[in-house]
Specification:
The structure is a homodimer of 303-residue chains.
Chain A: E1 2-6, E2 11-16, E3 22-28, H1 40-48, E4 58-61, E5 76-77, E6 80-81, H2 82-87, E7 90-91, E8 98-99, E9 103-106, E10 112-115, H3 118-125, E11 133-137, E12 142-148, E13 151-158, H4 160-170, H5 172-176, H6 186-196, H7 205-218, H8 227-249, E14 256-259, H9 263-275, E15 279-282, H10 287-299
Parallel strand pairs in A: 1-4, 4-8, 5-9, 11-14, 14-15
Antiparallel strand pairs in A: 1-2, 2-3, 6-13, 7-8, 9-10, 11-12, 12-13
Chain lengths: 303, 303
């Protein structure tokens, strides 16, 4: 199988052997935002390079299946079993690429929620253990998901990474941060996460706490080069407190979480999780490739 | 008295008659961020124009008293009575301008909070009524304050306006909003405020709800040109829910609020407050000028 995790800003391709193990991988800045005028065939050939002649079946997940992608693969509603996801693959008009659908659900206010790409990572991270798992995928739009057996039961998104990025680049908080990239301050991160997890206050309290990143620096209680870490702690800590409540409401114990994603970011989450009494284990590094393999198996597209 | 409300981006001057009424006013884009190399004398003369020859005493409030302003006027700690604020005026080295100090306090997590300029508006908005008042000043960094007698008892800040602005200009939510400025959608605003006020969830839930502004549009449940109003409702509604909890914790009834600030923004807050069962009355339009007058009276700088 040639598996492709094709996102908004970049794309990563995996060559999987007959046992489903990653034999080779490559990456290119060819996310769907970078592809001009629907030139997806060219982008794929450029990403694959000398693999382009490989007759192995090709399966992609991620934003490539969105309305702005190659062909739209309509969302599968939660609860979303592996089998359903595998039967809803879309094929590009040339037949050369199968695309995994995204998954959607509704929250308690009946507001829709969506993922594209993460469903494949979740299905790849699942163990054969029969217990329900709480899986967290940190990122621009972090996901918390409950999976049981081989089914994504439900999930919820947090704009944590994007809020951090826009505040750092464009707000009064960012303007207080020195231009030179400082060393990571574990203490400022921990304080932010702790301040975020004070119990019993409404969601809008986050709007107050963000202002605290400014005033703590103004009062020299954190250094200017600690503002980014305090802010990161505040946002990640807020996400964890909300995710924990969400998990409780959805009837799953939040005492252990499986983290899936880039290791530096997962390390930050693991620290904040452990500081708030939640165990964190790391999921497989190549969760997307494993998920693509499992979906391809179920879909019967492997030879 | 010549009173000046001198902020970060703009400055407004008032000429007050012997009864303390505003006889005339003028405004210029001469906020402290616009003043180069400490040229505050020139900026003041430019703002005052032909009033520059007026021998009346001059009193300013706002960011002009910050570390980045003309001369730093150290914060007065809460509870901050009018009398204390009036005895802590700082004078510029040429003696020509007195500056009102900002006010600070600490929240339940002992994180500092600050205001500069709003203390003067609050002192100007106070009625002689002996009851404690809950005063809300919507804006870039909204303030909720409790005042009793002529004392600012405590207050709290929310980054509501700034978060709205950076998300609209720089996030995925902003990129979904059509460039042409649409008509105000009262329905989208109300839905955002309602979604924000669902009870019993942690502050981080706001990070989830912000993502809903995207998914609702993706599912055609709000129109692309309603995203900004939904987002505005979500943020203002979140602030109100948090402010109400804050007021309750601080022992003041939150059934009526006095709004002070720009009328279009105060109208939005009034709608959201009333929709969540809180009465809203408008404070005086010229609260800053009234506050400067009261402070000048107490300070004995009027002739």
């Amino acid at each position: 199988l040639v598996g492709i995790d094709w996102g908004t800003t970049s794309a990563r391709a995996y060559r999987l052997d007959a046992a489903g193990d990653v034999a080779d991988e490559r990456q290119a800045p060819l996310g769907i935002q970078q592809v001009r005028e629907g030139a997806f065939v060219d982008a794929l050939n450029s990403l694959l390079g000398d693999w382009a002649d490989d007759p192995a079946p090709r399966l992609a997940c991620g934003m490539i299946g969105s309305r702005q992608g190659w062909i739209e693969a309509p969302y599968v509603e939660c609860p979303a079993p592996l089998d359903t996801v595998a039967t809803r693959l879309m094929r590009t008009s040339d037949g050369g690429l199968a695309i995994v659908p995204g998954v959607c659900c509704r929250d308690a206010q009946h507001v829709p929620d969506v993922m594209r790409g993460e469903e494949t990572q979740i299905l790849g991270a699942l163990t054969d253990d029969a217990h329900a798992m709480l899986i967290v995928l940190p990122g621009t739009h972090s996901k918390w998901a409950i999976a049981a057996g081989r089914t994504i039961v439900t999930f919820t998104s947090y704009m944590t990474g994007e809020i951090f990025a826009v505040l750092k680049a464009h707000s009064i908080l960012g303007r207080m941060i020195p231009a030179a990239s400082p060393a990571h301050s574990e203490a400022a991160f921990a304080r932010g996460a702790r301040d975020a997890s004070a119990p019993g206050v409404a969601p809008g309290a986050l709007l107050h706490r963000l202002f605290g990143a400014r005033t703590l620096a103004l009062f020299d209680e954190i250094a200017a080069d600690e503002i980014a870490d305090y802010l990161s702690g505040l946002l990640i800590g807020s996400e964890i407190a909300a995710g924990r409540e969400w998990a409780d409401r959805n009837g799953i114990a939040s005492n252990t979480v499986t983290l899936v994603g880039a290791s530096a970011l997962c390390d930050r989450y693991a620290t904040a999780l452990r500081n708030s009494g939640i165990g964190a284990t790391m999921g497989p590094r190549d969760a997307a490739a494993r998920g693509l393999w499992r979906i391809a198996q179920r879909a019967g597209i492997l030879r």
